[in-house]
Design a protein that fits this description.
The structure is a single chain. By secondary structure, the chain is α/β, with parallel strands linked by helices. The chain is built from 19 helices and 17 strands. A 7-stranded mixed beta sheet has the order 2-1-3-4-5-6-7, with helices on both faces. The protein has a 6-stranded parallel beta sheet with strand order 8-11-12-13-14-16. Strands 9-10 form a two-stranded antiparallel sheet. Strand 11, helix 9 and strand 12 form a beta-alpha-beta unit.
């Protein structure tokens, strides 16, 4: 069947400030029968006018699927959904991704959204597409929610009455969740759905995003993953991972792989086999992945060495807090000793590391924030290849801490427009006072200068920055004000 004769499935990735490949859309697109369906992925981040790109395709589409993250991408998802409905009111529009997984019913309050998909979406979306191709609806498809007819009690009739006690009503229907599917049972991701070169250009390197697992076993109370995946995990076999990556390396001349797993180092024997296979293949690319400090403490020195030999260049190790009491409170299930042990091992094996921190939790003390700054200083002083980014806690929906905050009176946005203004990275929440916010912002500024390998002309400034960080001496911060004023100057025409 010619491409033009096959039913068209449109997949849209909303605009965002980062250029990670839209692996969720690639996954659901790869799970469709490509002999039967023409699948197109449109990435709004690369289009000056995404709706103009979609408009000529919508007349022959059987559905439009949109992957939606909480925050700014919602605004673009809304604009595209509403525009598509204006062109074709009968077109089924399906939202998937993190926000619809957390708010399956609330997203359906938007008239342009017909179905939401929760958690792992490959099988659910494939079944929906089959239904749409047959002219049927989503009724009975596990793992989704939709608006449909349901029987509800008629309020003016006594409950014990048997005649006309119930009436049909249009309302949200949530189907039972779909069990987590073994990752090896899912088809390979077809990167032919993407213009891979555009992502390489945006990243500034030939770096491929790749995911080897779904879910997470851990229970961190600031994270929504336990809510979405129920603390379950499934991963690809090392044999399949290396086989697929070697093929992709030949096809796209990749030089680096960024594993996008929530917890890449979940099983040490899996990592050991993966590293061994990459070494045997001649270390075809460098790679990076997520590593918990407790996982690192269980890894042998030999395994660290094998990972480095296989191309491991960087790990991301979530520290979250420099206070052990705070770590215990958020159920992170790591110790600060494990964090420094991980850092020392990375240092010995020449592996760079990012150690993210989160401050500004409800009820967090100033002492706890300062403890995080102190731990970050120690880590940054160990190596110029160590980074310690700081983020402010924002009550991300689905997390246990957010649920507590809501019980204590915190108001989450009540509309999709409100959620589109929800900034999860840069801005402090109401639990951070002005003094603490200023302290953290000054530290972030100076820490970025203090321990990096600076050129000769910049070393005096780096020395001043180290002195300030080590003493928390940020008064008369002339460098801060000069740099802020310089950044605000308009560009010369």
């Amino acid at each position: 069947m010619n491409q033009a004769d096959r039913p068209l499935v449109l997949l849209y990735n909303p605009r965002a400030v980062f250029h990670t490949m839209p692996l969720g859309l690639v996954a659901i697109g790869s799970a469709l029968d490509r002999e039967r369906f023409d699948v197109r992925v449109i990435d709004g981040r690369f289009e000056a006018d995404p709706r103009a790109v979609l408009a000529p395709l919508i007349p022959r589409a059987i559905c439009l699927g949109i992957s939606v993250l909480t925050g700014r991408p919602i605004a673009d998802a809304l604009a595209v959904s509403r525009g598509a409905k204006t062109l074709r009111p009968d077109l089924p529009i399906v939202w998937g991704g993190w926000h619809p997984s957390l708010f399956p019913v609330e997203c359906l309050a938007e008239p342009s959204v017909d179905v939401t998909v929760q958690a792992q979406g490959e099988a659910t979306f494939a079944e929906l597409v089959e239904r749409f191709a047959e002219g049927r609806g989503p009724e009975g498809v596990r793992g989704c929610a939709y608006r449909g007819r349901r029987a509800v009690p008629f309020p003016d009739v006594p409950f014990h009455a048997t005649t006309h006690s119930y009436v049909d009503s249009i309302g949200p229907i949530v189907e039972p969740p779909r069990p987590l599917i073994d990752a090896d049972a899912l088809p390979p991701h077809d990167y032919g759905l993407l213009d891979v070169e555009r992502y390489f250009e945006a990243k500034g390197r030939r770096q491929l995003d790749y995911i080897t697992s779904y879910g997470c076993y851990f229970r961190c109370t600031f994270c929504a993953d336990p809510f979405v995946y129920g603390r379950k995990w499934t991963g690809l076999s090392p044999t399949r991972i290396v086989s697929e990556l070697l093929t992709l390396c030949k096809e796209h001349a990749i030089t680096d792989v960024n594993f996008q797993d929530e917890t890449f180092f979940t099983y040490t024997d899996r990592i050991d086999e993966l590293a061994g296979r990459l070494i045997t293949a001649g270390r075809p690319f460098s790679w990076a992945g997520t590593l918990r400090a407790d996982q690192a403490s269980r890894m042998s020195e030999d395994l660290f060495a094998r990972c480095a030999q296989s191309g491991l260049r960087r790990v991301l190790v979530g520290v979250e807090s420099g206070s052990q009491a705070m770590l215990d409170w958020m159920k992170k299930d790591i110790t600060l000793e494990q964090v420094f042990e991980t850092a020392e091992r990375c240092l010995r094996h020449g592996i760079a590391a990012q150690f993210p921190f989160i401050v500004g939790f409800p009820g967090e003390s100033d002492e706890s924030v300062r403890a995080s700054l102190d731990v970050a200083k120690r880590l940054r002083a160990m190596s110029p290849t160590f980074e310690t980014p700081f983020f402010y806690f924002k009550p991300y929906p689905g997390s246990e801490i957010t649920q507590r905050a809501v019980r204590d009176g915190y108001l989450l946005p009540e509309s999709l427009e409100g959620w589109s203004e929800f900034e999860i990275h840069d801005h402090a929440g109401p639990w951070v006072n002005a003094e603490t916010h200023a302290l953290v912002e000054r530290f972030k500024y100076y820490a970025a200068l203090a321990w990096d390998e600076a050129p000769l002309w910049k070393r005096p400034l780096a020395a001043i920055a180290r002195w300030r960080c080590q003493r928390d001496a940020y008064g008369l911060a002339w460098e801060w004000w000069v740099s802020r004023r310089w950044r605000r100057r308009p560009a010369l025409s």
